């Protein structure tokens, strides 16, 4: 359906016009092989299964995530296989290894992409930066994308709660003439709330910008800056954490989610409104050059290169965990751990 987003009209796909029954009909003869069982793998595979699709999981035997898949109800030899066996059995291969991991498995996936199969991604990474990944799909398969706009953990949680996470979808290659109905059916099947169309390049550039920016990188940066200034001016960790993070996540962001920024503002004091309306523009102006540098680094393929380089190392998990530990052990997030314990609902 066509909807106005501000003054721009866009075409979006909802469950109303593409119900689950239609999605099941479109994919009734397909075997959907979910390759990789990290974060997106479980969310998408379990939602598809619960929605009545024919799903198998491919994962390295002997890995922790193999055990997780078994614990989630996937049965070895029936619905859970080694990666290559899943590639052979699937007619739709959902390539949900980490973006760096996809490079190593690509020769195996490629070998099993016989004509008419579909290759599915949840990120435009591998194909867009194929000068770095070597992922160049054969011409006689569909190449499609559904990118849930959030963590696989939320995708699953929201599905279980009867809600839906929004996803983008894209078609890179339509070899069968059915790529469009296949990709939309998969998007509905994995539990999307609604779907908006993009292409692989725009998906990867916006996604890499968003996660490095407001969603993850910039938010931590702005939290740290304010927390430090408060602490340097003699405020206690409790006060600094509450005024920087807790109030935002517990009180104000839920209001933004419900009804927008102006409505959150309107539910705060006129004192706060005056100050926020004065200060948001200086913050925008100070951070915009950083966002411009970030977008350029994404566009030039530098962010992809860094990610491939570091996440291809054999000890990449250990290294990431070390850096996460540093965040976790910072005073701000240690204060956060105590504050979370004090929430009445956690007692
Ligand atoms: N994490 C998320 O919620 C989101 C992820 N995506 C995209 O979905 C895809 C999958 O991402 P995640 O679930 O985060 O992946 P992940 O980092 O959790 O890894 C998925 C699986 O790949 C396996 N793996 C890694 N390297 C391997 C290798 N060399 N050989 C065999 N297996 C290997 C891991 O063991 C794991 O089971 C990526 O394209 C990502 O950009 C998109 C939206 C959100
Ligand atoms: C959750 C998501 O959509 C991210 C942040 O882009 C990702 O995990 O890559
Ligand atoms: Mg994303
Ligand atoms: Mg991402």
TrEMBL record:
Mg(2+) 1 binds at residues 207, 211. It holds the Pfam family KARI_C. Pathway: Amino-acid biosynthesis; L-isoleucine biosynthesis; L-isoleucine from 2-oxobutanoate: step 2/4; Amino-acid biosynthesis; L-valine biosynthesis; L-valine from pyruvate: step 2/4. It is an enzyme of class 1 (oxidoreductase). Substrate binds at residue 269. Its EC number is 1.1.1.86. Residues 8-198 form the KARI N-terminal Rossmann domain. GO terms for molecular function: oxidoreductase activity. Its cofactor is Mg(2+). Mg(2+) 2 binds at residues 207, 243, 247. InterPro entries: 6-PGluconate_DH-like_C_sf, 6PGD_dom2, KARI, KARI_C, KARI_N, NAD(P)-bd_dom_sf. The keyword Amino-acid biosynthesis applies. Residues 199-346 form the KARI C-terminal knotted domain. Keywords: Amino-acid biosynthesis, Branched-chain amino acid biosynthesis, Magnesium, Metal-binding, Oxidoreductase. PROSITE patterns: KARI_C, KARI_N. Belongs to the ketol-acid reductoisomerase family. This is Ketol-acid reductoisomerase. It comes from Echinicola arenosa.
């Amino acid at each position: 359906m066509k909807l106005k987003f501000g003054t721009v009209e866009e075409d979006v796909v909802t469950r109303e016009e593409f119900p689950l029954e239609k999605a099941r009909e479109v994919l009734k003869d397909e075997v959907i092989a979910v390759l990789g069982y990290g974060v997106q793998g479980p969310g998408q595979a379990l939602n598809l299964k619960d929605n009545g699709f024919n799903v198998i999981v491919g994962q390295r035997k002997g890995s922790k995530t193999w055990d997780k898949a078994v614990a989630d109800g996937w049965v070895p030899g029936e619905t859970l296989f080694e990666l290559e066996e899943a590639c052979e059995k699937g007619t739709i291969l959902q390539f949900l290894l980490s973006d760096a991991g996809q490079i190593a498995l690509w020769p195996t996936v490629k070998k099993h992409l016989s004509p008419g199969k579909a290759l599915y991604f949840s990120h435009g990474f591998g194909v867009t930066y194929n000068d770095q990944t070597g992922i160049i799909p054969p011409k006689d398969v569909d190449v499609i994308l559904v990118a849930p706009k959030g963590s696989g953990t939320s995708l699953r949680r929201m599905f279980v709660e009867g809600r839906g996470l929004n996803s983008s979808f894209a078609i890179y290659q339509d070899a069968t003439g059915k790529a469009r109905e296949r990709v939309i059916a998969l998007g509905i099947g994995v539990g999307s709330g609604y779907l908006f169309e993009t292409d692989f390049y725009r998906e990867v550039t916006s996604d890499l910008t968003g996660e490095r920016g407001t969603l993850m990188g910039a938010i931590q940066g702005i939290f740290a800056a304010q927390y430090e200034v408060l602490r340097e001016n003699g405020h206690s960790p409790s006060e600094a954490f509450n005024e920087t993070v807790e109030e935002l996540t517990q009180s104000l962001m839920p209001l933004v989610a419900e009804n927008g920024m102006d409505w959150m503002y309107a539910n705060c004091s006129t004192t706060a409104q005056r100050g926020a309306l004065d200060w948001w523009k200086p913050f925008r102006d100070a951070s915009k050059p950083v966002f411009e540098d970030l977008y350029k680094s994404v566009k030039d393929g530098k962010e992809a290169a860094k990610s491939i380089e570091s996440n291809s190392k054999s000890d990449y998990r250990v290294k990431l965990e070390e850096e996460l530990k540093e965040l976790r052990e910072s005073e701000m997030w240690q204060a956060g751990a105590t504050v979370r314990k004090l929430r009445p609902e956690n007692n």
